[in-house]
Amino acid sequence: MKIAVVGTGYVGLVSGTCFAEIGVNVVCVDTNVEKIEALQRGEIPIYEPGLDEMVTRNVKAGRLRFSTSLPECLGEVEVVFCAVGTPPDEDGSADLRYVLDVARTVGRCIDRYVLFVTKSTVPVGTSRKVRAAIQEELDLRRADIEFDVASNPEFLKEGTAIKDFMSPDRVVVGVESPRAEKLMSKLYKPFLLNNFRVLFMDIPSAEMTKYAANSMLATRISFMNDIANLCELVGADVNMVRSGIGSDTRIGRKFLYPGIGYGGSCFPKDVKALIQTARQQGYTMQVLQAVEAVNERQKALLFEKLKAHFASQLEGKNVALWGLSFKPETDDMREAPALVLIDRLLEAGCRVRCYDPVAMDECRRRIGDRVSYAQDLYDAVLDADALLLVTEWKEFRLPSWAVVKKAMRQPVVFDGRNIYDKHEMEEQGFVYHGIGL
């Protein structure tokens, strides 16, 4: 089976590589010439554990290749996955220009049946626009060529994307014809031999499922952060509360960890897009508007705690940041709480020194040398008046606190992910601030 995956960003590159891993012949297409040339040299543009080895293995086997020309590929593929970006417009809605550009290219160039599958996260109704764009180009050519459109939203988690793709909880597919359903079943069957968890549905429902899933997870995060903030005010311990409510099987324990807000490429964008989709229909998503507001407030929480601790006297303070990426096991800093913290700290006159296992180059690309970059976690805290734990990387879980305390000017720790024990930290001589404690 031969497929094309258009877009070599996070979703496209992971998807294409994983399909190649199970024997599909895949060509990954991107208009970015430099990115394609780098991939052809074996240079991976994103950080994802295990991806570079898998790309190398499948390129060597001849199942995976890279191209800048979609028209050259269309004569040999049965399925075209569209995984291009859908960045938010100023009003929060998803920008579909790149998706529709791919659709028009398909309409201009196909000479036989093709299944066009939208892998990008797109608003409900996008498939109709995609179908119209392809058909318009076919009409201009006076070409009577059958095609199908399908929706196959991704549910990959950065840091575990390969595992998620190779052993999915479920695969959601929206189709309009038996032919499209048969093709998608054939494509996904190798991943799900033991338990065929493909959920076929209509296309609008598939499109909505992606947004609803991410918005639900974002809601749980913001709800727990709101509860954590109230816990501090009333003297409760959010860890006890989380354990108590998570034991209810109707609620469960996942995504009930308080912290300093969600970030990344999915939750912020998808919540905004769903709010805007509702707005276009004359409906107000009151819960999601609150979710978004809570999250934006939460990103500044560590700064507010720092400001309160030092009685607003932050000018000239040395502040160490452990973690820059929005979550562990990725270098992604899109909508990362660290960026909000850095801006606030610099505005207050602090000197900021950062360390992250993989996101240092990405941070430097985004904000340059506005902060200093440490060689390791201990170098970061040298002469620091405060340490802010921002991302819960594994290497931050059990540091030598004796070394940290000796290196710091003042032993003050602000734990934005509640990964340390308050009593243990205080026993070792630290002033400790967590979330919801």
Describe the structure.
By secondary structure, the chain is of the alpha/beta class. It has helices at 10-21, 33-40, 51-61, 97-109, 126-141, 161-166, 178-188, 203-234, 238-246, 267-280, 286-298, 301-309, 337-347, 360-367, 377-380, 401-407, 422-427, and strands at 2-6, 25-29, 64-67, 79-82, 114-118, 147-151, 171-174, 198-201, 318-322, 351-355, 372-373, 386-389, 412-415, 431-433. Helix content is 43%, strand content 14%. The termini are far apart. The strands form 3 sheets. It has a 6-stranded parallel beta sheet, sandwiched between helices. A 6-stranded parallel beta sheet has the order 11-10-9-12-13-14. The protein folds into 3 domains: 2-200, 3-Layer(aba) Sandwich (Rossmann fold); 211-297, Rossmann fold (3-Layer(aba) Sandwich), CATH 3.40.50.720; 299-433, Rossmann fold (3-Layer(aba) Sandwich), CATH 3.40.50.720. It has 17 helices and 14 strands. The longest helix is centred in the middle third of the chain and has 32 residues, at 203-234.
CATH topology of the largest domain: Rossmann fold
Strand order of the largest sheet: 3-2-1-4-5-6
Helix content: 40-55%
What is the beta-strand fraction? 5-15%
Could you state the CATH homologous superfamily of the largest domain? NAD(P)-binding Rossmann-like Domain
Q: Uncertain regions: pLDDT < 50 for 5+ in a row?
A: none
Straight-line distance between termini? 55 Å
Which structural class is indicated by helix and strand composition? alpha/beta
Number of strands: 14
**CATH top level of the largest domain?**
Alpha Beta
